[in-house]
Write a structure and sequence with these properties.
528 residues; mainly alpha; 20 helices
Length: 528
């Protein structure tokens, strides 16, 4: 047992204790699944950040940055962050207004169709299972590397912890622990970055070292390292834009993201929480990227790139700070896992079992426990592939849901049959292409990305099928109801709050561009 393991055990005990305390305030199904619909902006924003920045970012993406995928991945990150603002304005407000418990229920209510709801529930569970597998493998990999414990034992510990937190505390506990964890790993990452930068000679000096080195130049150049994301620099940039659209879709409509808006106390909270979340996630992404790249200046030969932050914490930071950073990464993994598991339970009990369940909370809890056990078994028999598993989950969101959600809000002509066909074709085409490449090892052209193909098939299917079917009066009424602003939302304070948040979003978008220019582009170009 080392100091890192002790730090992890202490943090785990704190999170479980918080879950136990929060569980005492749960009085009904709304409290358990949507936090009583009264969560403030700080909890919504904290949960958005925590559920996005999992081990997939701190390990999978960090490893890709370390290996030379900066050029495409940073484009993807920048585009993804904008999805929070667009999602809150064009979907989150209407989602909360619908008064549903889950996103699949929203689809069912909007299109007056049980079939659409069931298909949405099926695809939602697939998405979240994929992510839960990625997160669980990430936690197991990290704990194994840091503590020396058996990999399978590490995953058992992780599974027990996030299952206990989720089952006993529900969404209220998840929101609170998510926000605490988000604050913790953000502070830890910033302090860790300072230590790394000090050891590599300073931020701007490190960027210039990379720029002037024939070995490291392409780590930060527009060309990138061939073969990491794509065959060459241009294709890597195209990869970045395609996946930027995918992850913009995740931020906009992904169930583990947009479901947070169901818990907001009002529509102003929906928009106000999305703006700091968008900025925070991009800044975390950028800091992770630069730390991973700077580590190359000290150790360019890390055998498993996914462990670059682990290596930095254990070799480039004081012990105490290393413990803080690694427990922060652990917190990121646990926070994401609790979100995914909570939503799987909610979707199964509310959307699949529905009114047949006498006690939806109990059904959800049983489903969560069974899901955790099945995911654990899968993780034990399959080797970790954090980055690519994570990307597949995002692809399913973009292919199956994003066009359908936009159509549900913006289109008067989209029918229930069109929505069903679009969602099914998007999911199926995405899955088939990904399965084909996984089995055969084939490398498809970057423009034939499975997510992009899925989105195209989704849109085509919606257009064709809707052209041959009619919108029913129930569907028309359901859509019109989404545009009726509740009286409680018509106060001057709420309206001003929404416009103020939109203004801040524009300002912070400009700030992000300035940060990239000052902290990366200008020192990199000036070094040459």
């Amino acid at each position: 047992m080392n100091i890192y393991f002790i730090g992890m055990c202490i943090s785990i005990a704190i999170y479980v204790a918080i879950g136990i305390v929060v569980s005492r305030s749960i009085k009904g199904i709304d409290d358990y699944y949507v936090a009583g619909r009264r969560a403030p902006a700080v909890l919504i924003a904290g949960s958005l950040v925590a559920s996005y920045t999992s081990t997939g970012m701190f390990m999978g993406e960090a490893g890709t940055y370390y290996a030379g995928g900066f050029n495409g991945l940073i484009i993807c990150g920048l585009m993804a962050s904008t999805g929070y603002v667009f999602g809150s304005i064009f979907f989150g407000r209407y989602l909360r207004r619908s008064g549903v418990m889950t996103i699949p229920e929203f689809f069912g209510k909007r299109f007056a169709s049980k079939n659409v709801k069931n298909l949405a529930a099926f695809t939602a569970i697939i998405m979240m299972l994929v992510y839960l597998i990625s997160v669980m493998q990430g936690i197991g990999t990290m704990m194994n590397a840091v503590t020396g414990l058996d990999f399978n034992m590490c995953m058992v510990i992780a599974m027990v912890v996030f299952t206990v937190i989720t089952v006993i505390a529900g969404s209220s506990g998840v929101l609170i622990t998510d926000t605490i964890m988000a604050g913790f790993f953000t502070v830890a990452l910033i302090l860790g970055a300072i230590c790394v930068v000090i050891q590599t000679g300073g931020w701007f000096e490190s960027v210039q070292q990379v720029a002037l080195s024939s070995d490291y130049h392409d780590l930060l150049s527009a060309d990138g390292i061939a073969g990491v994301l794509a065959e060459n620099g241009i294709q890597s940039v195209i990869w970045g834009f395609i996946n930027g659209i995918v992850w913009m879709g995740v931020a906009m409509v992904g169930p583990w993201q947009s479901s947070r808006y169901l818990m907001a106390k009002d529509e102003r909270t929906v928009v106000s929480s999305a703006v700091p979340a968008a900025f925070g996630i991009f800044m975390i992404e950028f800091i992770v990227a630069m730390i991973a790249i700077f580590v190359n200046l000290v150790n360019p030969g890390i055998e498993d790139p996914a462990q670059v932050l682990i290596w930095a914490a254990m070799n480039m930071m004081p012990k105490v700070l290393g413990v803080i950073l690694l427990t922060g990464v652990l917190a990121a993994g646990i926070s994401s896992a609790t979100t995914f598991l909570s939503l799987i339970g909610a979707s199964f009990s509310n959307d699949i079992i529905g009114d047949r369940a006498k006690n939806k909370i109990r059904v959800g809890q049983i489903v969560m426990v069974i899901t955790s056990i099945l995911v654990l078994i899968f993780c034990i028999i399959n080797p970790p592939a954090l980055f690519w598993i994570m990307l597949f989950g995002g692809a399913v969101v973009a292919a199956a849901w994003m066009p359908t959600v936009l159509g549900a809000i913006l289109s008067k002509r989209l029918t229930k049959q069109g929505a069903y066909a679009g969602m099914l074709c998007g999911f199926t085409s995405c899955f088939v292409i990904r399965l084909y490449t996984a089995i055969t090892g084939a490398v498809l052209p970057v423009w034939l990305d499975h997510a992009l193909v899925g989105m195209v098939f989704n849109v085509i299917a919606m257009i064709i099928v809707s052209a041959f079917t009619q919108v029913t009066p129930e569907e028309k009424e359901a859509r019109e109801a989404l545009f009726v602003v509740p009286e409680s939302e018509k106060t001057p304070e709420n309206r001003k709050g929404i416009f103020r948040a939109a203004k801040y979003a524009i300002i912070l978008g400009i700030v992000e561009i300035v940060i990239l220019l000052v902290a990366w582009v200008i020192p990199f170009i000036s070094a040459g």
